[in-house]
Amino acid sequence: MRDWRRKIRDTAFSGEDARWIERMNNAVAYIENHLGGDIHIRRAAALANCSIHHFQRIFSFMAAMPVSQYIRQRRLTMAAFELQGGGPKIIDLAVKYGYDSPESFARAFKAMHGVTPSEARKPGIPLKSCPVLGFRVSIQGGTPMDYRIEEHEGFLLFGVTREISTLDRRNLTEVPAFWYEKLKDGSIDRIREAAGISGAVPVHSAIYRCTDSGYTYLIGYTAADGTDTRDFTVLDVPGGTWAVFEINAPDRAGAAEKAAPLWERIFTGWFPVSGYELADAPELELHYRTGSGGFRTEIRIPVTVPRNQM
């Protein structure tokens, strides 16, 4: 196993940062220029010089919403502008902005603006607006990010799963609720029993099968030879290269409090300057108790070096 230990300061700004920002803004400009027509995420990702998987995950963290939700809100924003300006018929707007029928357009419009398209034509009606996203340099913090790059062979995780939505940042409440539910119903105890570990040993989690609007979340443990996994979901974690970020805290609650901000920094601060791209493999949180009585969480992100940087 190779292990490179590195430190990156998220205030550092280089030519690569400028190129990354330019590429992401080019992708946003492509979306903006095609709001009234077909938008191909593959093309947006190509303009950002990354895979679709990488683009969707990065965009979700940077914009605090999935790219599909951003496109929908931008289209509904433009539709509102046209309606207030005495624009075309509602059925024509529905077609223009990619809806199958005036009814589906009206439902989406009301969900965002709180009024129907017909009501939006009236003077003085308050409407919501989703502004155009723009990426820029942000000099802040100055706290170095410690990480290491490791290569590992594949292994199996087993456990219980749930589909998690990233729309409107629901994952921030759905994931803790899933943990609480599985603690209460005994699922985590059954995982420990199947793994042959005591109740003091923390279990792990994984994010996989990521889509633009969510992912599958697994709570579980590593499967050894002979582990009875018949009543659980089994996840095959392939071998590969991982960027590993550690959290050290007095207890699990302290580690959990630090986890969400670190995930965000990884995707918004580390990836743009790292030279790595997110690989299409499970993202992991591995949890351990330390000898000093504390708690350690390792966020393990699968990475690859893009072909144009090899």
Helix content class: 40-55%
Strand count, sense and barrel status of the largest sheet are: 10 strands, antiparallel
The CATH architecture designation of the domain at 144-309 is: Alpha-Beta Barrel
Mean pLDDT over the full residue set = 90
Just give the CATH class of the domain at 144-309.
Alpha Beta
Our estimate of the beta-strand percent is 15-25%
Number of helices: 10
Shape category:
elongated
Annotation keywords:
310 residues, alpha+beta, Multidrug-efflux Transporter 1 Regulator Bmrr, Chain A, 10-stranded antiparallel beta sheet, 10 helices, 10 strands, 40% helix, 24% strand, elongated, disordered N terminus
Notes on the structure:
Helices cover 40% and strands 24% of the residues. With 310 residues, the chain is an alpha+beta fold. It has a domain at 144-309: Regulatory factor, effector binding domain (Multidrug-efflux Transporter 1 Regulator Bmrr, Chain A). Strand 9 and strand 10 (295-304) form a beta hairpin. Helix 3 (52-63) crosses helix 10 and helix 5 (90-96) packs across helix 6 (102-113). The radius of gyration is 22 Å and the shape is elongated. The two termini are 20 Å apart.
